Amino acid sequence: MSKPYASLSLDLDNLWAYQMTHGDANWTDYGSYLDVLVPLVLDELERLQLRITFFVVGQDAALDKNRAAIKALSDAGHEIANHSFRHQPWLHRYTRDEINTELANAEQAIADVTGQHTVGFRGPGYSLSADVLDVLLDRGYAYDCSTLPTVVGPLARWYYFRSAKLTAEQRAERSTLFGGAREGLRPLKPYEWRVGERNILEIPVTTLPIARIPMHVSYVLYMAGVSPAIGNAYFASALRVCRLRGVAPSILLHPLDFLGSDDVTELGFFPAMGMTGARKRMVARACLAELAKQFEVVPMIEHARRAAAKASLSTVDCGRAGPVLERVR
C-alpha cells in the first residue's frame, strides 16, 4: 500500500538573522554558519534519500561567502524557495512597494546563485499580510506557507524577548512575532486565501491536530532536553494523529535543529542551545526517519501541486482574517 505524503522544509535562517531579531549589535557583520550547517544537513537528508525545500534568505545569497553552500543545496536536487531578502519578522508592516522590492531582490539573488526561480514563499517569523499575498500573486507564486496555526505564539514571544536587547521601538516592531493565540483558530489543512478577486494556495506549518501545539523538530528538541525518548515518542505520535485526521503534514526544520552550543556559541540565549550538535542531530535524525517511515516525503512544491488538485479546498478571505492580514494603511 502506498503511504500518504508529507512535505519537509528548512528555513535557512542564518546567524545574523537570529542576532538581528534578538537586538545584538554585531548582526550587521552578517555572521554565517552556512558553511558548517549545509554539509551536515545534506548528509542527514542523503541518508534517507529525501528531497525537501530550503527557504533561503536573499541577503545570504547576495554574499559571496555563502554562494558555495547555497548552490550545494540546489545542486543536490532540493527546491529553493523565498524567505525574504532581509529576514525582518515585521514584514507585515511594510508597504506594498517595499514588499515587492523585498521579494524581487531575494528572487534575483537566489536565481543568480542557484538558477532556480522561486515559486514558494514563507515570511520570516511567520510574518504575513494581505499586501504580501497580493504581491505574491502579482509575481506568479504558486504557494505561501507563512502560517503556524498554534496557540503558543505569545509564550514563544515572551521567551524570546526576556533575554533580548531591544529598545521600546524595536519591541513594538516585533510585537506580533510568532503571532497571537488566535492563530490556533486558522485552518490546519491547505486552503486558498481570497485576495480581492484572486486566490493563492496556503500550506500551513502543521501543528498537532485538535491541541494545536507545535510538532516541528525545534519543539521536539525542547522535550529531548529532558528525554530524547519523550521527544521522539511525541513526534511519532503526532504523525500518527495526522494520519488519523487526514492531515498531510508540512514539517518544518530550522538550522538550530542541527547545530548545538559547540557549533554556534553566539546563540547561547536560544532555546535548546545547551545541547551539543551531535545530540541534536541524533534527535533530528530519528524524527526524519520516523517521518519517512510513516509518509512519502516531498518538497513543498509537490505538496502544493497535490493540494491544488483537490476540489475540496476551503477559501479564507484575507480581509476578514484578523489584524495580521489587514493591509498597511
Pick out its properties.
329 residues, 5-stranded parallel sheet
Topology:
Blueprint: E1 5-11, H1 15-22, H2 34-47, E2 53-56, H3 58-61, H4 67-75, E3 79-82, H5 96-114, E4 120-121, H6 130-138, E5 143-144, H7 153-161, H8 168-173, E6 191-195, E7 198-202, H9 217-224, H10 228-245, E8 250-253, H11 277-294, E9 296-298, H12 300-308, E10 315-317
Parallel strand pairs: 1-2, 1-8, 1-9, 2-3, 4-5, 5-7, 6-10
Antiparallel strand pairs: 6-7
Structure description:
This protein has 329 residues and is an alpha/beta fold. The chain has a single domain, classed as TIM Barrel (Alpha-Beta Barrel). Helices cover 40% and strands 12% of the residues. The protein is built from 12 helices and 10 strands. Strands 1, 2, 3, 8 and 9 form a 5-stranded parallel sheet that branches. The radius of gyration is 18 Å and the shape is globular. It starts with a strand and ends in a 12-residue tail after the last strand. The mean pLDDT is 90.
